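Q: What does the assembly look like in three dimensions?
Context provided by user:
Components: four
Sequences:
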Amino acid sequence: MEVHVKQNQTAREEQQENRARMLISCPDGPGIVATVSRFLFEHGANIVQSDQYTMNPAGGMFFMRVEFDLPELSKNLPALERDFQAVGDQFKMEWTINQVSRKKRLAIFVSKEDHCLVELLWHWQAGDLDADIAMVISNHNDMRSYVESFGIPFHHIPVTADTKKEAEQKQLEVIGSDIDLIVLARYMQIISPLFIEHFRNRIINIHHSFLPAFVGGKPYAQAYNRGVKIIGATAHYVTEELDGGPIIEQDVQRVSHSDNVNELKRIGRTIERVVLARAVEWHTEDRVLVHQNKTVVFN
Amino acid sequence: MEVHVKQNQTAREEQQENRARMLISCPDGPGIVATVSRFLFEHGANIVQSDQYTMNPAGGMFFMRVEFDLPELSKNLPALERDFQAVGDQFKMEWTINQVSRKKRLAIFVSKEDHCLVELLWHWQAGDLDADIAMVISNHNDMRSYVESFGIPFHHIPVTADTKKEAEQKQLEVIGSDIDLIVLARYMQIISPLFIEHFRNRIINIHHSFLPAFVGGKPYAQAYNRGVKIIGATAHYVTEELDGGPIIEQDVQRVSHSDNVNELKRIGRTIERVVLARAVEWHTEDRVLVHQNKTVVFN
Amino acid sequence: MEVHVKQNQTAREEQQENRARMLISCPDGPGIVATVSRFLFEHGANIVQSDQYTMNPAGGMFFMRVEFDLPELSKNLPALERDFQAVGDQFKMEWTINQVSRKKRLAIFVSKEDHCLVELLWHWQAGDLDADIAMVISNHNDMRSYVESFGIPFHHIPVTADTKKEAEQKQLEVIGSDIDLIVLARYMQIISPLFIEHFRNRIINIHHSFLPAFVGGKPYAQAYNRGVKIIGATAHYVTEELDGGPIIEQDVQRVSHSDNVNELKRIGRTIERVVLARAVEWHTEDRVLVHQNKTVVFN
Amino acid sequence: MEVHVKQNQTAREEQQENRARMLISCPDGPGIVATVSRFLFEHGANIVQSDQYTMNPAGGMFFMRVEFDLPELSKNLPALERDFQAVGDQFKMEWTINQVSRKKRLAIFVSKEDHCLVELLWHWQAGDLDADIAMVISNHNDMRSYVESFGIPFHHIPVTADTKKEAEQKQLEVIGSDIDLIVLARYMQIISPLFIEHFRNRIINIHHSFLPAFVGGKPYAQAYNRGVKIIGATAHYVTEELDGGPIIEQDVQRVSHSDNVNELKRIGRTIERVVLARAVEWHTEDRVLVHQNKTVVFN
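A: Here is the predicted structure of the complete assembly.
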């Protein structure tokens, strides 16, 4: 297993050493694709994959994701970024360029339900999640030994109604300054606006319903009481509105009248972990752009 | 095509001549299955299919559907029903027995969108919908010639805010006393409580969203604005609460950020017609029992 | 209904008057996207949608689909095509540019099963299938009146083992020279290599199984006998190898032990018509490129 | 986590202490359901769930699964079984009655791919797989520490072309006489007919394709080469015919031209583990009956 993972990673790493991903959002207008692709060509970059989407041909927003190879990327990227500034300004772009070899660093938050954490660790261990899991933070101590057996630091930060503010402060300290993404893997605490502000569009939550149905607590009980024939799960970025942030991914499973709440939970667990894993992978691969309360997902 | 349909129907009709379906709802208790199956056996009936479901083994509700063959059914059913009265009373059952050969009579309500009507007529013509389509009622006259080309009576009953009450009165007159099921095949008018009372649990509506998400008008626009990644449709019995009645069937389809409202509508049309057709078929085959605001579907 | 269709079509037609779609296949190499997008920009075209795919970054094939608007397209397209010749030659491209307003002309072949034909006509009538249905050809006369009620010419060309060659000759005569796509909508005759040669990658067949499982006749009986838990349908381009051509689209539906062959057929019909309709729509919208025995579908 | 599992188990165990499951296969005939349910009622048993299926009303096979509660089950079951012998003989039944509290004992075979094993252990640990995992047998030693961390015995039995016979002999010794089910969780060795004979309809394999497509080795490479748009996995009982045994469960996932073989494998892993877990759960809950080369699954 050890060997298997390493082989996958080595192959991937060689391929990715000189690869970068560019994400662009801007008002639509003529010539953007032409300008960007010509710019990259003239700077010696080879476009491997390019996706774009225009929300509305007349006066809407334009979104683009370009994956490209550039010889000696680490050495040459700063110059390319400096030169691209002019292009970005011309089209009023928000843009970023990420080196693929610079893996994103994740902090996973978890409470007592372990299935989403187990899934993410399994994807990570199998070499399918191209990120570093920098730490796991939990308001319970139950999963310490499991997490630490992977060599991942585990921080137990209890949260009560009274200590919520201090707990978040402690979380921020532990997280420090080099975490790219926070994953709420069935973390059963509401995140404060202050905390969200630190990680705008960088906190992914898994909600155990097919949003916008069954916002809030006990969604499986709500689903059972409504008598739905299909249940689902939703991965979304966390905003100040409870379960109201931009949706990244959803999936569903058929159920029947004979499934009680416990069975809905059991079926739902598999949906939740698959949906969360997809959303996290897409984010780490720079496939998700956020515009207002919606996502553009290039996958 | 003519020939094909007739063959299907003939084979089915022979098989079904002596077949009946019994539906039972009652408080759960020991010995129900044993009593019912023994009763049928002793009356010369052969059980072809039997399904049951107990909502909760201790003190819940019990639901049962039995399909059985009885020699000379038409002649012998009245005596069997009379004798079953004692069993029904013993267990406080609500029960019905339907002859399969006595097809249910449907009235389809439609406005301007034709896809659900087209679907039902296609299933009916293909011999897959085992019911009689007795009439189509519409608040517009657009589909008259299409409907009449199938030999089905078409009634144009306009509805405005002012004439709603009279229109419903006229609908009831046209429907008369021998319609078993009303199907709202994208009929864009709200049904009054008075009308609903006439057809309790016998009006099926197709709502063009994955309920309970996006209740009310313009659900595809709502779905687009919320940025969902999956859309759906829901067939449900109509109650006094708008889009709140017992759900019979739902289905969904994956969409992406690049699908605008018109594309959601287009994708949705195929979900709507499939979901509505399934719900209508299940109802006509006595597969749906209603308890409070939920359905038990034996399929 | 009449009005509804026309409104859709008018809106679409205005939008599409100056729109074109370019399809490119060529060996991969640096600078293709940059060169094409720069070319279009310099010729006054605005890229509305661009998709590309490289089969293998090192030495594989490159595929591209560009949707663009060009003012006064009809007048300006010939010059643009003439100028693009140099780009095409430089990268050894196979390329085509289609005016969106120039709808593709379809000939639909059908035998006795009508569901796929009904579906295509419904999509077409609803304004969702952006093509002209120029004619329906059948080896049976059953559907003449149905087809003619849409104002579509119907040609009855009987086929027997002995007359097959003559029948195909007659089909080719009826088809003439301005048909873009032949759709085998459950046409139960094998097409000869000679006929296929006339319409290479322009004959779409619907096979009623999840290929490559259950090639050949009676796939639902084969599926029943194997006891599969999911059945499917496959739309593919017709090649000389029976049911072996490039797959455009597939879909599936869950079944159970209790579904007999007739029920598999019934369930399958809905899969077949949905899958075929999607494949035909994608082809008519220039979304499908064929390479060897596989398709690239930009959707 | 520890606590959570135990609570689930305790609640389940109390409920199941007096619960049994009866499985019946026999030629169809009148009165079977009536006789069985009357028998159970007269012996003081309360039917909790009853499912049956007749392959063909006239002269086919009949299958039944009854879940029932009997006071003091352990004490009273032997007498009930003795008395039922007469019923079984009357209808030429194959029948078994299993105490739910007597959990099935599993031996899991695995090679180098760990995802199916991880899944089964996660379901087991979460209290969702109602069975005992008695041992893991592998032809490699890689997963020893992982398996042993759950307190499950791990047996490393290497297999080469030359030592196959001895290896199977050793496996049989290790397995002993009290294993109910063998699960091949991506065990990449072909099982000999001799071994199969010991565990007829008690070896479940997961094949990484949508059978009967892509029998044998490298199914994902086969799927890629054929250009399918959907991939799948199949759980089946192992018979002497390679990948040809009775199918228990299948599921699928949509893919596209842009997914290479490695990506198909990655997507497939999630299908495989879900499908295998379902099949194993259904088998352990006595939901699967085998008739010839097909399964009847009551779920």
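Follow-up: Confidence is low (pLDDT under 50) at residues 1-7 of chain B.
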